[in-house]
Amino acid sequence: MLQAMTHASPSLECIAAADGCVLKPGGCWCIDELERLDQLLTSTPVPHDCRLKIDASGLTDLDSAGVMLVVNRLRAQGVVWSNVDLADFNAHQLDLIQLVAERLDARGQPRRRRSALLPLLGRKAAEQIRAMVSQFVFFGRLVEAVSEVVRRPRLLRLRELTTQLETVGLNALPIVMLMTFLIGVVFAFLLGVQVQKFGANIFIVDGVSLAVTRELAPLLTAILVAGRSGAAFTAQIGAMKVTEEIDAIATLGLSPIQVLVLPRLLAIIITLPLLTFVGDVMGVLGSSLVAHAQLDITYYTFFERLKSVLPASTVWFGLAKTPVFAAAIALIACRNGFAVQRDARSVGEYTTKTVVQSLVAVILIDSLFAIAFPEGGL
Amino acid sequence: MSFTGAILQVENLHTHLGDQWLHKGINFSVGRGEVVALIGGSGTGKSVLLRQCIGLTRPSQGKVRLFGEDICALSGRQLNQVRSRYGVLFQEGALFSSMTVAENVAAPLQEHTRLPLKLRNELVAMKIRLAGLPMEAASKRPSELSGGMKKRAALARALALEPELLFLDEPTSGLDPISAREFDHLLRVLCDSLGLTAFMATHDLDTLWGMVDRVIVLYAGKVIANGPVNEVAKLDHDWIRAYFSAHSGRQ
Predict the structure, then answer these.
(1) Distance CA A82, CA A63 (A)
(2) Is the pTM above the cut of 0.80?
(3) Domain CATH number, residue B137
Protein backbone atom coordinates (compact mmCIF):
# COMPACT_ATOMS: atom_id res chain seq x y z
CA MET A 1 0.00 0.00 0.00
CA LEU A 2 1.80 2.95 -1.29
CA GLN A 3 0.30 5.76 0.66
CA ALA A 4 2.46 7.87 2.81
CA MET A 5 -0.43 8.91 4.99
CA THR A 6 -2.00 7.41 8.03
CA HIS A 7 0.39 4.58 8.86
CA ALA A 8 1.63 4.31 12.40
CA SER A 9 5.41 4.12 12.25
CA PRO A 10 6.76 0.65 13.05
CA SER A 11 8.46 -0.33 16.25
CA LEU A 12 10.03 -3.46 17.68
CA GLU A 13 10.73 -4.59 21.21
CA CYS A 14 12.43 -7.71 22.45
CA ILE A 15 11.47 -8.65 26.01
CA ALA A 16 13.07 -11.50 27.91
CA ALA A 17 10.46 -13.65 29.63
CA ALA A 18 10.60 -16.61 31.96
CA ASP A 19 10.14 -19.29 29.34
CA GLY A 20 12.04 -17.55 26.57
CA CYS A 21 11.75 -14.33 24.75
CA VAL A 22 8.88 -12.19 23.39
CA LEU A 23 9.15 -10.09 20.26
CA LYS A 24 6.63 -7.26 20.13
CA PRO A 25 6.30 -5.62 16.74
CA GLY A 26 4.14 -2.50 16.65
CA GLY A 27 2.69 -0.12 14.07
CA CYS A 28 2.64 -0.70 10.36
CA TRP A 29 4.74 -3.53 9.03
CA CYS A 30 4.39 -3.07 5.32
CA ILE A 31 6.27 -2.21 2.16
CA ASP A 32 6.28 1.56 2.71
CA GLU A 33 8.29 1.14 5.90
CA LEU A 34 10.50 -1.65 4.67
CA GLU A 35 13.81 0.14 5.03
CA ARG A 36 13.02 1.20 8.58
CA LEU A 37 11.87 -2.32 9.41
CA ASP A 38 15.12 -3.72 8.10
CA GLN A 39 17.04 -1.42 10.44
CA LEU A 40 14.82 -2.34 13.39
CA LEU A 41 15.19 -6.03 12.81
CA THR A 42 18.91 -6.04 12.25
CA SER A 43 19.55 -3.78 15.24
CA THR A 44 17.44 -5.83 17.66
CA PRO A 45 19.37 -8.89 18.78
CA VAL A 46 17.16 -11.94 19.12
CA PRO A 47 18.45 -14.91 21.08
CA HIS A 48 18.03 -18.05 19.01
CA ASP A 49 18.70 -20.60 21.71
CA CYS A 50 15.44 -20.08 23.60
CA ARG A 51 11.75 -20.24 22.81
CA LEU A 52 10.62 -17.24 20.77
CA LYS A 53 7.14 -15.75 20.77
CA ILE A 54 5.87 -12.99 18.52
CA ASP A 55 3.10 -10.92 20.05
CA ALA A 56 1.10 -9.00 17.47
CA SER A 57 -1.10 -7.02 19.84
CA GLY A 58 0.54 -3.74 18.86
CA LEU A 59 0.57 -4.44 15.13
CA THR A 60 -1.72 -2.30 12.96
CA ASP A 61 -0.86 -3.38 9.42
CA LEU A 62 0.95 -6.34 7.95
CA ASP A 63 1.63 -7.27 4.36
CA SER A 64 3.67 -9.92 2.64
CA ALA A 65 6.73 -7.70 2.43
CA GLY A 66 6.67 -7.26 6.19
CA VAL A 67 6.27 -10.96 6.80
CA MET A 68 9.11 -11.73 4.45
CA LEU A 69 11.42 -9.39 6.27
CA VAL A 70 10.62 -10.87 9.68
CA VAL A 71 11.08 -14.40 8.46
CA ASN A 72 14.29 -13.69 6.55
CA ARG A 73 15.94 -11.62 9.29
CA LEU A 74 15.03 -14.02 12.07
CA ARG A 75 16.33 -16.90 10.04
CA ALA A 76 19.50 -14.96 9.38
CA GLN A 77 19.94 -14.71 13.16
CA GLY A 78 19.66 -18.46 13.46
CA VAL A 79 16.04 -18.72 14.58
CA VAL A 80 14.19 -21.83 13.45
CA TRP A 81 10.94 -20.45 12.14
CA SER A 82 8.82 -23.49 12.94
CA ASN A 83 9.69 -23.10 16.63
CA VAL A 84 8.32 -19.57 16.79
CA ASP A 85 5.00 -19.04 18.57
CA LEU A 86 2.62 -16.58 17.00
CA ALA A 87 0.23 -14.79 19.36
CA ASP A 88 -2.57 -12.32 18.79
CA PHE A 89 -2.44 -12.48 15.02
CA ASN A 90 -5.80 -12.59 13.29
CA ALA A 91 -6.67 -15.52 11.07
CA HIS A 92 -5.87 -13.75 7.80
CA GLN A 93 -2.48 -12.66 9.08
CA LEU A 94 -1.73 -16.22 10.18
CA ASP A 95 -2.64 -17.46 6.71
CA LEU A 96 -0.36 -14.90 5.17
CA ILE A 97 2.52 -15.71 7.49
CA GLN A 98 2.15 -19.40 6.85
CA LEU A 99 2.03 -18.89 3.09
CA VAL A 100 5.05 -16.62 2.95
CA ALA A 101 7.15 -18.64 5.39
CA GLU A 102 6.39 -21.85 3.55
CA ARG A 103 7.22 -20.35 0.17
CA LEU A 104 10.40 -18.78 1.45
CA ASP A 105 11.49 -22.19 2.69
CA ALA A 106 12.87 -23.14 -0.64
CA ARG A 107 15.64 -20.70 0.00
CA GLY A 108 17.56 -18.61 -2.39
CA GLN A 109 17.79 -15.34 -4.20
CA PRO A 110 17.47 -14.94 -7.91
CA ARG A 111 20.86 -15.98 -9.07
CA ARG A 112 22.45 -14.17 -11.94
CA ARG A 113 23.59 -16.35 -14.74
CA ARG A 114 27.32 -16.41 -14.40
CA SER A 115 28.99 -16.58 -17.74
CA ALA A 116 32.60 -17.63 -17.66
CA LEU A 117 34.63 -17.06 -20.79
CA LEU A 118 34.91 -20.63 -21.97
CA PRO A 119 31.22 -21.59 -21.77
CA LEU A 120 30.37 -18.25 -23.39
CA LEU A 121 32.76 -19.01 -26.22
CA GLY A 122 31.28 -22.46 -26.62
CA ARG A 123 27.73 -21.16 -26.60
CA LYS A 124 28.52 -18.51 -29.19
CA ALA A 125 30.28 -21.04 -31.38
CA ALA A 126 27.38 -23.45 -31.13
CA GLU A 127 25.03 -20.59 -32.01
CA GLN A 128 27.09 -19.74 -35.07
CA ILE A 129 27.14 -23.34 -36.23
CA ARG A 130 23.41 -23.66 -35.73
CA ALA A 131 22.84 -20.42 -37.66
CA MET A 132 24.99 -21.73 -40.49
CA VAL A 133 23.18 -25.05 -40.59
CA SER A 134 19.83 -23.32 -40.63
CA GLN A 135 21.09 -21.16 -43.47
CA PHE A 136 21.90 -24.24 -45.51
CA VAL A 137 18.56 -25.79 -44.64
CA PHE A 138 16.80 -22.63 -45.71
CA PHE A 139 18.73 -22.51 -48.95
CA GLY A 140 17.95 -26.15 -49.64
CA ARG A 141 14.27 -25.65 -49.06
CA LEU A 142 14.35 -22.63 -51.31
CA VAL A 143 15.98 -24.59 -54.13
CA GLU A 144 13.38 -27.30 -53.63
CA ALA A 145 10.57 -24.75 -53.84
CA VAL A 146 12.05 -23.15 -56.95
CA SER A 147 12.46 -26.46 -58.74
CA GLU A 148 8.88 -27.35 -57.91
CA VAL A 149 7.62 -24.06 -59.31
CA VAL A 150 9.72 -24.56 -62.44
CA ARG A 151 8.07 -27.94 -62.94
CA ARG A 152 4.60 -26.61 -62.17
CA PRO A 153 4.45 -22.87 -62.92
CA ARG A 154 0.88 -22.75 -61.68
CA LEU A 155 2.22 -22.92 -58.13
CA LEU A 156 3.61 -19.43 -58.50
CA ARG A 157 1.46 -16.95 -56.57
CA LEU A 158 0.87 -14.25 -59.13
CA ARG A 159 -1.20 -11.99 -56.93
CA GLU A 160 1.40 -11.93 -54.17
CA LEU A 161 4.07 -11.38 -56.81
CA THR A 162 2.31 -8.35 -58.26
CA THR A 163 1.75 -6.81 -54.83
CA GLN A 164 5.42 -7.28 -54.07
CA LEU A 165 6.40 -5.84 -57.45
CA GLU A 166 4.38 -2.79 -56.60
CA THR A 167 5.75 -2.28 -53.09
CA VAL A 168 9.36 -3.17 -53.89
CA GLY A 169 9.53 -1.54 -57.32
CA LEU A 170 6.93 1.07 -58.05
CA ASN A 171 6.77 2.56 -54.58
CA ALA A 172 10.55 2.79 -54.38
CA LEU A 173 10.77 4.69 -57.65
CA PRO A 174 10.58 8.27 -56.30
CA ILE A 175 13.23 7.78 -53.65
CA VAL A 176 15.57 5.95 -56.05
CA MET A 177 15.15 8.70 -58.64
CA LEU A 178 15.84 11.42 -56.12
CA MET A 179 18.89 9.76 -54.61
CA THR A 180 20.61 8.85 -57.88
CA PHE A 181 19.86 12.28 -59.29
CA LEU A 182 21.49 13.93 -56.29
CA ILE A 183 24.51 11.62 -56.42
CA GLY A 184 24.87 12.45 -60.13
CA VAL A 185 24.82 16.14 -59.27
CA VAL A 186 27.35 15.82 -56.45
CA PHE A 187 29.68 13.57 -58.35
CA ALA A 188 29.64 15.77 -61.47
CA PHE A 189 30.25 18.83 -59.37
CA LEU A 190 33.30 17.36 -57.64
CA LEU A 191 34.68 15.87 -60.85
CA GLY A 192 33.98 19.16 -62.64
CA VAL A 193 36.27 21.03 -60.27
CA GLN A 194 39.08 18.59 -61.10
CA VAL A 195 38.69 18.49 -64.87
CA GLN A 196 38.47 22.27 -64.96
CA LYS A 197 42.00 22.43 -63.56
CA PHE A 198 43.28 20.60 -66.62
CA GLY A 199 41.00 22.40 -69.04
CA ALA A 200 39.58 19.03 -69.94
CA ASN A 201 35.98 20.00 -69.37
CA ILE A 202 34.46 17.61 -71.86
CA PHE A 203 36.00 14.59 -70.11
CA ILE A 204 33.50 15.05 -67.32
CA VAL A 205 31.10 13.09 -69.51
CA ASP A 206 33.47 10.12 -69.66
CA GLY A 207 34.02 10.09 -65.94
CA VAL A 208 30.43 10.60 -64.85
CA SER A 209 28.85 8.16 -67.25
CA LEU A 210 31.26 5.42 -66.31
CA ALA A 211 30.97 5.96 -62.56
CA VAL A 212 27.20 6.30 -62.49
CA THR A 213 26.29 3.37 -64.71
CA ARG A 214 28.96 0.95 -63.53
CA GLU A 215 29.06 1.60 -59.81
CA LEU A 216 27.03 4.37 -58.30
CA ALA A 217 23.54 3.66 -59.56
CA PRO A 218 23.64 -0.13 -59.00
CA LEU A 219 25.16 0.18 -55.58
CA LEU A 220 22.99 3.01 -54.38
CA THR A 221 19.79 1.40 -55.60
CA ALA A 222 20.71 -1.90 -53.99
CA ILE A 223 21.45 -0.17 -50.70
CA LEU A 224 18.13 1.66 -50.82
CA VAL A 225 16.23 -1.51 -51.60
CA ALA A 226 18.07 -3.44 -48.89
CA GLY A 227 17.15 -0.85 -46.30
CA ARG A 228 13.65 -0.43 -47.56
CA SER A 229 12.41 -3.81 -48.73
CA GLY A 230 14.88 -6.10 -47.00
CA ALA A 231 13.92 -4.72 -43.61
CA ALA A 232 10.24 -4.93 -44.53
CA PHE A 233 10.56 -8.60 -45.56
CA THR A 234 12.14 -9.56 -42.26
CA ALA A 235 9.63 -7.61 -40.23
CA GLN A 236 6.64 -9.00 -42.16
CA ILE A 237 7.74 -12.60 -42.04
CA GLY A 238 8.92 -12.22 -38.45
CA ALA A 239 5.58 -10.77 -37.31
CA MET A 240 3.80 -13.62 -39.08
CA LYS A 241 6.00 -16.05 -37.21
CA VAL A 242 5.12 -14.38 -33.90
CA THR A 243 1.39 -14.70 -34.59
CA GLU A 244 1.85 -18.31 -35.77
CA GLU A 245 0.63 -17.43 -39.28
CA ILE A 246 3.58 -19.31 -40.77
CA ASP A 247 2.50 -22.46 -38.93
CA ALA A 248 -1.03 -21.88 -40.20
CA ILE A 249 0.27 -21.73 -43.77
CA ALA A 250 2.15 -24.98 -43.24
CA THR A 251 -0.90 -26.73 -41.81
CA LEU A 252 -2.92 -25.71 -44.86
CA GLY A 253 -0.53 -27.93 -46.77
CA LEU A 254 1.27 -25.02 -48.37
CA SER A 255 4.95 -24.38 -48.30
CA PRO A 256 5.70 -21.12 -46.48
CA ILE A 257 8.74 -20.77 -48.70
CA GLN A 258 6.61 -20.89 -51.82
CA VAL A 259 3.96 -18.60 -50.46
CA LEU A 260 6.15 -16.01 -48.79
CA VAL A 261 9.70 -16.21 -50.05
CA LEU A 262 9.42 -16.95 -53.77
CA PRO A 263 7.21 -13.96 -54.65
CA ARG A 264 9.48 -11.65 -52.70
CA LEU A 265 12.64 -13.11 -54.21
CA LEU A 266 11.25 -12.84 -57.74
CA ALA A 267 9.89 -9.37 -57.19
CA ILE A 268 13.17 -8.01 -55.96
CA ILE A 269 15.18 -9.76 -58.72
CA ILE A 270 12.88 -8.31 -61.35
CA THR A 271 12.67 -4.80 -60.00
CA LEU A 272 16.23 -4.08 -58.91
CA PRO A 273 17.64 -3.95 -62.50
CA LEU A 274 14.71 -1.79 -63.58
CA LEU A 275 15.18 0.59 -60.69
CA THR A 276 18.90 0.66 -61.40
CA PHE A 277 18.30 1.62 -65.01
CA VAL A 278 16.10 4.48 -63.90
CA GLY A 279 18.90 5.39 -61.51
CA ASP A 280 21.41 5.40 -64.40
CA VAL A 281 19.24 7.82 -66.34
CA MET A 282 18.63 10.09 -63.39
CA GLY A 283 22.30 10.17 -62.41
CA VAL A 284 23.38 11.11 -65.91
CA LEU A 285 20.63 13.74 -66.09
CA GLY A 286 21.79 15.25 -62.81
CA SER A 287 25.36 15.45 -63.98
CA SER A 288 24.40 16.97 -67.34
CA LEU A 289 22.70 19.73 -65.38
CA VAL A 290 25.88 20.44 -63.46
CA ALA A 291 28.02 20.20 -66.58
CA HIS A 292 25.79 22.82 -68.19
CA ALA A 293 25.82 25.19 -65.24
CA GLN A 294 29.39 24.77 -64.06
CA LEU A 295 31.38 23.93 -67.18
CA ASP A 296 29.25 25.52 -69.91
CA ILE A 297 28.80 22.24 -71.72
CA THR A 298 25.52 22.36 -73.59
CA TYR A 299 23.10 19.49 -73.23
CA TYR A 300 23.54 18.71 -76.89
CA THR A 301 27.31 18.43 -76.54
CA PHE A 302 26.94 16.40 -73.37
CA PHE A 303 24.71 13.78 -74.91
CA GLU A 304 26.67 13.67 -78.18
CA ARG A 305 29.79 12.95 -76.17
CA LEU A 306 27.86 10.45 -74.03
CA LYS A 307 26.89 8.49 -77.13
CA SER A 308 30.49 8.11 -78.20
CA VAL A 309 32.10 7.37 -74.80
CA LEU A 310 29.57 5.20 -73.03
CA PRO A 311 29.36 1.76 -74.60
CA ALA A 312 26.18 -0.19 -73.96
CA SER A 313 28.31 -2.93 -72.44
CA THR A 314 29.17 -0.70 -69.46
CA VAL A 315 25.50 -0.15 -68.72
CA TRP A 316 24.81 -3.84 -69.13
CA PHE A 317 27.65 -4.68 -66.80
CA GLY A 318 26.22 -2.40 -64.16
CA LEU A 319 22.78 -3.89 -64.60
CA ALA A 320 24.04 -7.47 -64.62
CA LYS A 321 25.28 -7.15 -61.06
CA THR A 322 21.93 -6.14 -59.68
CA PRO A 323 20.03 -9.46 -59.83
CA VAL A 324 22.84 -10.95 -57.75
CA PHE A 325 22.50 -8.13 -55.24
CA ALA A 326 18.76 -8.67 -55.27
CA ALA A 327 18.98 -12.38 -54.62
CA ALA A 328 21.38 -11.80 -51.72
CA ILE A 329 19.09 -9.20 -50.17
CA ALA A 330 15.98 -11.36 -50.49
CA LEU A 331 17.70 -14.47 -49.15
CA ILE A 332 19.14 -12.70 -46.13
CA ALA A 333 15.91 -10.86 -45.39
CA CYS A 334 13.64 -13.89 -45.65
CA ARG A 335 15.98 -16.19 -43.76
CA ASN A 336 16.18 -13.70 -40.92
CA GLY A 337 12.41 -13.36 -40.98
CA PHE A 338 12.03 -17.10 -40.41
CA ALA A 339 14.63 -17.02 -37.66
CA VAL A 340 12.56 -14.61 -35.56
CA GLN A 341 11.56 -16.04 -32.17
CA ARG A 342 8.19 -15.59 -30.59
CA ASP A 343 8.76 -12.35 -28.77
CA ALA A 344 8.53 -8.68 -29.60
CA ARG A 345 12.21 -7.92 -29.23
CA SER A 346 13.30 -10.54 -31.68
CA VAL A 347 11.61 -8.87 -34.66
CA GLY A 348 13.63 -5.70 -34.20
CA GLU A 349 16.82 -7.65 -33.62
CA TYR A 350 16.53 -9.62 -36.83
CA THR A 351 15.43 -6.62 -38.87
CA THR A 352 18.61 -4.86 -37.81
CA LYS A 353 20.59 -7.95 -38.72
CA THR A 354 18.99 -8.01 -42.15
CA VAL A 355 19.94 -4.45 -42.96
CA VAL A 356 23.52 -4.86 -41.80
CA GLN A 357 24.06 -8.25 -43.40
CA SER A 358 22.52 -7.31 -46.73
CA LEU A 359 24.55 -4.10 -46.97
CA VAL A 360 27.73 -6.06 -46.29
CA ALA A 361 26.68 -8.68 -48.83
CA VAL A 362 25.93 -6.10 -51.52
CA ILE A 363 29.28 -4.39 -51.12
CA LEU A 364 31.14 -7.70 -50.98
CA ILE A 365 29.46 -8.92 -54.14
CA ASP A 366 30.23 -5.62 -55.82
CA SER A 367 33.90 -5.87 -54.99
CA LEU A 368 33.97 -9.47 -56.21
CA PHE A 369 32.57 -8.28 -59.53
CA ALA A 370 35.15 -5.52 -59.69
CA ILE A 371 38.00 -7.97 -59.05
CA ALA A 372 36.68 -10.68 -61.34
CA PHE A 373 35.96 -8.39 -64.28
CA PRO A 374 38.35 -5.46 -64.02
CA GLU A 375 37.83 -4.70 -67.70
CA GLY A 376 34.15 -5.56 -67.67
CA GLY A 377 32.19 -3.32 -69.94
CA LEU A 378 35.00 -0.85 -70.52
CA MET B 1 -6.97 4.44 5.20
CA SER B 2 -9.63 7.08 5.27
CA PHE B 3 -11.74 5.63 2.51
CA THR B 4 -14.12 2.86 3.45
CA GLY B 5 -16.74 2.71 0.68
CA ALA B 6 -16.70 0.64 -2.49
CA ILE B 7 -13.24 0.19 -3.93
CA LEU B 8 -14.48 0.03 -7.48
CA GLN B 9 -17.68 1.68 -8.53
CA VAL B 10 -19.09 1.84 -12.05
CA GLU B 11 -21.95 4.26 -12.56
CA ASN B 12 -24.24 4.37 -15.56
CA LEU B 13 -21.45 3.48 -17.94
CA HIS B 14 -22.07 3.65 -21.69
CA THR B 15 -19.65 2.70 -24.43
CA HIS B 16 -20.09 3.53 -28.08
CA LEU B 17 -17.98 1.28 -30.25
CA GLY B 18 -18.05 1.27 -34.02
CA ASP B 19 -21.64 2.24 -34.74
CA GLN B 20 -23.36 0.60 -31.82
CA TRP B 21 -23.66 0.87 -28.08
CA LEU B 22 -21.61 -1.86 -26.44
CA HIS B 23 -22.55 -0.92 -22.89
CA LYS B 24 -25.92 0.63 -22.20
CA GLY B 25 -25.87 1.84 -18.64
CA ILE B 26 -23.79 -0.43 -16.46
CA ASN B 27 -23.88 -0.08 -12.68
CA PHE B 28 -22.11 -2.13 -10.06
CA SER B 29 -19.66 -1.78 -7.23
CA VAL B 30 -17.02 -3.92 -5.60
CA GLY B 31 -16.33 -3.65 -1.88
CA ARG B 32 -13.09 -4.15 -0.01
CA GLY B 33 -11.91 -7.72 0.22
CA GLU B 34 -14.40 -9.05 -2.30
CA VAL B 35 -13.52 -11.36 -5.15
CA VAL B 36 -15.87 -10.53 -7.99
CA ALA B 37 -16.08 -12.17 -11.39
CA LEU B 38 -17.45 -10.56 -14.52
CA ILE B 39 -18.94 -13.02 -16.96
CA GLY B 40 -20.65 -12.64 -20.29
CA GLY B 41 -20.57 -14.08 -23.79
CA SER B 42 -17.83 -13.27 -26.25
CA GLY B 43 -18.26 -9.78 -27.63
CA THR B 44 -20.29 -8.44 -24.71
CA GLY B 45 -17.49 -6.09 -23.83
CA LYS B 46 -15.96 -7.68 -20.74
CA SER B 47 -12.44 -6.81 -21.73
CA VAL B 48 -13.47 -3.32 -22.77
CA LEU B 49 -15.13 -2.81 -19.40
CA LEU B 50 -12.04 -4.08 -17.64
CA ARG B 51 -9.84 -1.69 -19.61
CA GLN B 52 -12.15 1.15 -18.66
CA CYS B 53 -11.94 0.22 -14.99
CA ILE B 54 -8.15 0.24 -15.23
CA GLY B 55 -8.23 3.65 -16.85
CA LEU B 56 -6.73 2.57 -20.17
CA THR B 57 -9.75 3.63 -22.20
CA ARG B 58 -12.49 6.10 -21.40
CA PRO B 59 -16.15 5.20 -21.42
CA SER B 60 -18.37 7.27 -23.71
CA GLN B 61 -20.59 8.19 -20.79
CA GLY B 62 -20.72 7.44 -17.10
CA LYS B 63 -18.16 7.20 -14.36
CA VAL B 64 -15.64 4.73 -13.05
CA ARG B 65 -14.59 5.34 -9.47
CA LEU B 66 -11.51 3.67 -8.06
CA PHE B 67 -10.99 4.14 -4.33
CA GLY B 68 -13.74 6.74 -4.48
CA GLU B 69 -12.13 8.88 -7.17
CA ASP B 70 -13.54 9.36 -10.64
CA ILE B 71 -10.61 8.20 -12.74
CA CYS B 72 -11.84 9.99 -15.87
CA ALA B 73 -11.56 13.32 -14.07
CA LEU B 74 -8.05 12.73 -12.73
CA SER B 75 -4.93 14.33 -14.15
CA GLY B 76 -2.25 12.05 -15.55
CA ARG B 77 -0.21 12.40 -12.37
CA GLN B 78 -3.10 11.64 -10.06
CA LEU B 79 -4.05 8.69 -12.22
CA ASN B 80 -0.55 7.32 -11.92
CA GLN B 81 -0.81 7.62 -8.17
CA VAL B 82 -4.02 5.61 -8.22
CA ARG B 83 -2.35 3.14 -10.56
CA SER B 84 0.26 2.24 -8.00
CA ARG B 85 -2.57 1.03 -5.75
CA TYR B 86 -3.83 -1.65 -8.09
CA GLY B 87 -2.21 -4.45 -10.04
CA VAL B 88 -3.29 -5.85 -13.37
CA LEU B 89 -2.86 -9.36 -14.69
CA PHE B 90 -3.27 -9.24 -18.46
CA GLN B 91 -4.60 -12.18 -20.37
CA GLU B 92 -1.33 -13.14 -22.04
CA GLY B 93 0.70 -11.97 -19.07
CA ALA B 94 2.10 -8.97 -20.96
CA LEU B 95 5.53 -9.56 -19.47
CA PHE B 96 8.26 -7.35 -20.88
CA SER B 97 9.97 -9.69 -23.28
CA SER B 98 13.36 -8.05 -23.10
CA MET B 99 13.64 -8.56 -19.34
CA THR B 100 14.05 -11.62 -17.17
CA VAL B 101 11.25 -12.61 -14.82
CA ALA B 102 13.09 -11.09 -11.86
CA GLU B 103 13.54 -7.82 -13.73
CA ASN B 104 9.89 -7.85 -14.69
CA VAL B 105 8.84 -8.18 -11.07
CA ALA B 106 11.38 -5.57 -10.01
CA ALA B 107 10.15 -3.05 -12.58
CA PRO B 108 7.22 -1.62 -10.58
CA LEU B 109 9.33 -1.55 -7.43
CA GLN B 110 12.00 0.34 -9.28
CA GLU B 111 9.56 2.91 -10.60
CA HIS B 112 7.49 3.49 -7.50
CA THR B 113 9.72 2.89 -4.49
CA ARG B 114 13.21 3.85 -3.39
CA LEU B 115 14.15 0.59 -1.75
CA PRO B 116 17.82 -0.35 -1.65
CA LEU B 117 18.84 -3.02 -4.11
CA LYS B 118 19.25 -5.74 -1.49
CA LEU B 119 15.74 -5.34 -0.12
CA ARG B 120 14.34 -5.08 -3.60
CA ASN B 121 15.97 -8.34 -4.61
CA GLU B 122 14.64 -10.00 -1.48
CA LEU B 123 11.14 -8.75 -2.25
CA VAL B 124 11.39 -9.91 -5.85
CA ALA B 125 12.47 -13.37 -4.76
CA MET B 126 9.60 -13.55 -2.28
CA LYS B 127 7.00 -12.44 -4.85
CA ILE B 128 8.27 -14.97 -7.35
CA ARG B 129 8.04 -17.72 -4.76
CA LEU B 130 4.68 -16.43 -3.57
CA ALA B 131 3.28 -16.68 -7.08
CA GLY B 132 4.35 -20.32 -7.06
CA LEU B 133 7.33 -20.15 -9.38
CA PRO B 134 10.57 -21.99 -8.69
CA MET B 135 13.56 -19.75 -8.07
CA GLU B 136 15.22 -21.00 -11.28
CA ALA B 137 12.53 -19.19 -13.25
CA ALA B 138 13.75 -15.82 -12.01
CA SER B 139 16.60 -15.53 -14.45
CA LYS B 140 14.61 -16.76 -17.43
CA ARG B 141 13.08 -14.61 -20.12
CA PRO B 142 9.34 -14.75 -20.77
CA SER B 143 9.90 -16.53 -24.09
CA GLU B 144 11.43 -19.44 -22.18
CA LEU B 145 8.38 -19.91 -19.94
CA SER B 146 5.25 -22.00 -20.40
CA GLY B 147 1.83 -20.36 -20.40
CA GLY B 148 1.15 -21.19 -16.77
CA MET B 149 4.51 -19.92 -15.64
CA LYS B 150 3.97 -16.70 -17.57
CA LYS B 151 0.71 -16.18 -15.71
CA ARG B 152 2.43 -16.73 -12.40
CA ALA B 153 5.26 -14.39 -13.30
CA ALA B 154 2.68 -11.79 -14.33
CA LEU B 155 0.89 -12.29 -11.02
CA ALA B 156 4.16 -11.77 -9.18
CA ARG B 157 4.61 -8.50 -11.04
CA ALA B 158 1.04 -7.43 -10.37
CA LEU B 159 1.56 -8.11 -6.65
CA ALA B 160 4.93 -6.40 -6.44
CA LEU B 161 3.66 -3.19 -4.88
CA GLU B 162 1.30 -4.88 -2.40
CA PRO B 163 -1.75 -3.52 -4.23
CA GLU B 164 -5.15 -3.22 -2.61
CA LEU B 165 -6.94 -4.14 -5.79
CA LEU B 166 -6.15 -6.67 -8.45
CA PHE B 167 -7.65 -6.76 -11.95
CA LEU B 168 -7.44 -10.04 -13.79
CA ASP B 169 -8.31 -10.72 -17.40
CA GLU B 170 -9.07 -14.41 -17.85
CA PRO B 171 -6.61 -15.53 -15.17
CA THR B 172 -7.03 -19.23 -15.84
CA SER B 173 -7.37 -19.27 -19.61
CA GLY B 174 -4.73 -21.38 -21.28
CA LEU B 175 -3.93 -23.28 -18.09
CA ASP B 176 -4.53 -26.97 -17.59
CA PRO B 177 -7.24 -27.75 -15.00
CA ILE B 178 -4.74 -28.65 -12.30
CA SER B 179 -2.75 -25.45 -12.71
CA ALA B 180 -5.97 -23.49 -13.02
CA ARG B 181 -7.29 -24.77 -9.68
CA GLU B 182 -3.90 -24.16 -8.10
CA PHE B 183 -3.97 -20.65 -9.44
CA ASP B 184 -7.48 -20.12 -8.06
CA HIS B 185 -6.41 -21.39 -4.68
CA LEU B 186 -3.34 -19.18 -4.65
CA LEU B 187 -5.42 -16.17 -5.59
CA ARG B 188 -7.98 -16.90 -2.91
CA VAL B 189 -5.34 -17.30 -0.22
CA LEU B 190 -3.65 -14.11 -1.32
CA CYS B 191 -6.92 -12.22 -1.39
CA ASP B 192 -7.87 -13.41 2.08
CA SER B 193 -4.52 -12.95 3.69
CA LEU B 194 -3.54 -9.70 2.02
CA GLY B 195 -7.05 -8.28 2.22
CA LEU B 196 -6.91 -8.00 -1.53
CA THR B 197 -9.90 -7.07 -3.62
CA ALA B 198 -10.04 -8.84 -6.96
CA PHE B 199 -12.09 -8.07 -10.04
CA MET B 200 -11.76 -10.53 -12.88
CA ALA B 201 -13.20 -11.25 -16.27
CA THR B 202 -13.40 -14.99 -16.65
CA HIS B 203 -14.94 -17.86 -18.57
CA ASP B 204 -13.94 -20.54 -16.13
CA LEU B 205 -16.95 -22.09 -14.39
CA ASP B 206 -14.76 -23.87 -11.87
CA THR B 207 -13.27 -20.56 -10.85
CA LEU B 208 -16.77 -19.19 -10.36
CA TRP B 209 -17.89 -22.07 -8.20
CA GLY B 210 -14.61 -22.44 -6.39
CA MET B 211 -13.38 -19.07 -5.27
CA VAL B 212 -15.56 -16.16 -6.29
CA ASP B 213 -17.72 -14.23 -3.82
CA ARG B 214 -19.94 -12.60 -6.36
CA VAL B 215 -20.72 -12.85 -10.06
CA ILE B 216 -21.73 -10.01 -12.33
CA VAL B 217 -23.34 -11.08 -15.60
CA LEU B 218 -23.07 -8.84 -18.64
CA TYR B 219 -25.64 -9.40 -21.35
CA ALA B 220 -26.71 -7.14 -24.23
CA GLY B 221 -24.92 -4.16 -22.77
CA LYS B 222 -26.43 -4.38 -19.30
CA VAL B 223 -25.81 -6.10 -16.01
CA ILE B 224 -28.51 -8.74 -15.83
CA ALA B 225 -27.43 -10.44 -12.63
CA ASN B 226 -25.27 -9.58 -9.68
CA GLY B 227 -24.91 -11.91 -6.73
CA PRO B 228 -23.34 -15.05 -5.28
CA VAL B 229 -22.78 -17.74 -7.85
CA ASN B 230 -25.32 -20.23 -6.47
CA GLU B 231 -28.06 -17.59 -6.65
CA VAL B 232 -27.10 -16.36 -10.09
CA ALA B 233 -26.99 -19.91 -11.42
CA LYS B 234 -30.62 -20.42 -10.40
CA LEU B 235 -31.91 -17.35 -12.24
CA ASP B 236 -34.39 -17.91 -15.01
CA HIS B 237 -32.68 -16.35 -17.97
CA ASP B 238 -31.87 -18.11 -21.24
CA TRP B 239 -28.26 -17.10 -21.47
CA ILE B 240 -27.49 -17.75 -17.80
CA ARG B 241 -29.13 -21.15 -17.94
CA ALA B 242 -27.19 -22.05 -21.06
CA TYR B 243 -23.98 -20.77 -19.53
CA PHE B 244 -24.22 -22.74 -16.33
CA SER B 245 -25.41 -25.90 -18.02
CA ALA B 246 -22.61 -25.80 -20.55
CA HIS B 247 -20.50 -28.04 -18.35
CA SER B 248 -23.27 -29.99 -16.69
CA GLY B 249 -22.80 -32.92 -19.04
CA ARG B 250 -19.74 -34.06 -17.18
CA GLN B 251 -20.96 -33.34 -13.66
Answers:
(1) 20
(2) no
(3) 3.40.50.300
